[in-house]
Amino acid sequence: MNNPLKNINAFLPYCLLIVFLTGYLYIGYFLERSSAIPLMLTYSILFAIYGLLLFKLKKTALISFSVFFSLLIRLSLLFALPNLSDDFYRFIWDGRLLNHGINPFIHLPSYYIENPTLSPEGINRDLYLKLNSPEYFTIYPPVNQFIFWLSALLSPNSIVGSVIVIRVFILLTEAGNFYIIDKLLNIYNLPRKNLLIYALNPLVILELSGNLHFEGVVVFFVLAGVYLLKRHRLLYAAASFALAISTKLIPVIFLPLIFSKLSFRKTLYFYLMCGLVTLLTFLPLLSTEFVQGVSSSFSLYFKKFEFNASLYYLLRAYGYHLQGYNIIGTAGSFLALITLMAIVHYAFYESYTRQKTLPHCFLWALLIYLSFTTTLHPWYIIPLIAYCLFTSYRFPVLWAFLIFFTYLQYKPGGFLENLNLVLIEYALLFAFLLWEWGRNYFQKMGLSRDIQC
Q: Residue 151 and residue 167: Cα distance in Å, rounded?
């Protein structure tokens, strides 16, 4: 006689996946970021289903099906305009300039509005008014610019068409991520189920396939580099890391950690090849104006931008108390220096102990960077989710839930940051992180299943 409960349990994962898909379609096609309550409620439901799926999916066949289904969810957003971020308008702006042979780093967007006779087709006031930072030079490195150019080449007059081209590229790198993560989990002798932590994560799906952010591309090139290092293909690994740097720049902070895993001679070769490939990718854009524009953007990033920060907000509060004004002009540069020193110190520590894998080291290096940064948008933490798969730490998963609530601060009339939300986010995050660290410390994680790279 059939057991009804057994039949229900057999079909439950499939039912959950259907509801999962429905939630993404609702957010992707019907909600705006100013619709705070419906957005947060739907996201919370998605995260609850995500947790249930991680608990329920144990059979190999179900894991493979769920990974494939997660790709279908991403594909279902193919025709949706990003509704939680408007960065994509700058992607299209840069791409249209490149499609007409114009370096997007040379002039501010306002230059083309003030000189309409010099504006190429598609660079107009309607698109200009949609840019979220028109007073700043573009900040996107060559790999991004290539994709922007391709989107404009294939769809020169359609915003939706350009979005589809960019999204297809991101979908392809996500499929590549699944493949590389699966390979590395096998190499490190870790459960294949860990792949689901990344593949089904709501923040990963919404911010990458939904909002067209490029952290997933960075994850692909970084983890491909680790995989190639494991295969002793040093040149290709260096090239892969170079492409990661040419996508987001932040992977530069991982370079000191390479020294902790390779011999001195191999490290020098790796750095040389990585630097050469990076230079080659930047070469088509290099000019005096490029250097000035990038320098201006970085200066503004460290001296003006602030959002959802942790340690910086404490320093800022101290500055207000001591000086009576916002000290970001000096604090941003100071924290950047502290970040560099902390990561280099950690790299030297790892070169001495050699206890952790490269993804494990990347997890901590990136956490250091994000802890000291003045600006932290939700999509910035996505690489942490990927790197934590190769460790016993799961704090990035909790963070993926907490950080999404920064969207509560977007109102129909604009944006207003709520520091109480920021306090709750980081109090819960660091409390959980401390608990995980203490648990691992007392379990003597140095003798655990982590494998040397």
A: 10
